[in-house]
Amino acid sequence: MADEEDIILSELDDEELVLQMHDDLYDGLKEEIEEGVRILLDRGWAPYDVLTKALVAGMTIVGADFRDGILFVPEVLLAANAMKAGMAILKPLLAETGAPKVGKMVIGTVKGDIHDIGKNLVGMMMEGAGFEVVDIGINNPVENYISALEREDADILGMSALLTTTMPYMKVVIDTMKEKGMREDFIVLVGGAPLNEEFGKAIGADAYCRDAAVAVQTAKDFMSRKHNKLAAG
Ligand code: B1M
Hints:
With 233 residues, the protein is an alpha/beta fold. The chain folds into 2 domains: 2-97, Orthogonal Bundle (Methyltransferase, Methionine Synthase (B12-binding Domains), Chain A, domain 1); 104-232, 3-Layer(aba) Sandwich (Rossmann fold). The chain has 9 helices and 5 strands, in the order ααααβαβαβαβαβα. It has a 5-stranded parallel beta sheet with strand order 2-1-3-4-5, with helices on both faces. Strand 3 (156-160), helix 7 (169-179) and strand 4 form a beta-alpha-beta unit. The N and C termini lie far apart (70 Å). The protein binds CO-5-methoxybenzimidazolylcobamide. Residues 56, 59, 62-63, 66-67, 73, 76-77, 80, 107, 112-119, 121-122, 158-160, 162-164, 189-194, 209, 211-212, 215 line the site of CO-5-methoxybenzimidazolylcobamide.
């Protein structure tokens, strides 16, 4: 049987290559992931397909084995690193639509939470759809969100949480916006694997977004409603 060193990625057909990339992501092989992404792009794959079929699908496998105690934090960190390296190649391509700016979003992961891959992906896709994105990073206390919204004159607040223990913090941010009388000035979108629509409603967000594509569509819908409202005076 051929061992890992013997596999020449460029000789695999698309399906084999994608499966190999899932394995390479699992093993945290950053350079192989970068190479795989470049090969698929050279073969004419759309950047979004490379992202979802090769990278996000691979990360789902990592997530399942992390949950089941087969993988541990150090291995998952390596996988996350490899994923980010692949995303870095795709980022300029996804943002290259030349679309006019349709709105501005501040996005960040909530306090206590350092997961940032999903947030980064949402940011990338939003930029690709013509939004200006201000990424305030991870582990954000409420003050960070409030000051970024005020400073940036944004239209949309995006919050990400990946842990059941950190998702309630989104309500702290929304309640603080209400206390300050600024809640109605912004569209609030929330996302992250443990959330759902019901949770989004319960905490007073405008919408829960299942994934990055839904986030883009939802943001566009809300922005066109906002523009129509303004036009109606
Ligand atoms: Co973490 N972790 N992790 N982890 N980790 C999860 C979330 C977990 C589900 C794994 C598991 O058990 N199966 C579990 C949470 C369980 C729970 O709360 N119910 C978990 C745990 C327990 C932990 C630690 C506590 C582990 C420990 O230390 N014992 C610890 C916590 C650290 C902390 O934050 N304080 C921890 C640490 C880590 C790493 C550092 C090793 C690493 C993060 C690296 C990084 O992000 N830079 C990591 C990773 C990678 C994961 C998994 C495997 C993958 C997450 C990911 O990147 N997915 C994850 C398992 C899983 O989610 N299945 C897991 C890919 C990404 C594209 O998807 O983030 O869901 P996702 O984003 C999607 C949508 O959710 C949505 O769009 C995105 C793109 O389509 N979305 C938004 C996300 N944010 C949005 C914001 C929006 C809109 C949409 O705003 C508008």
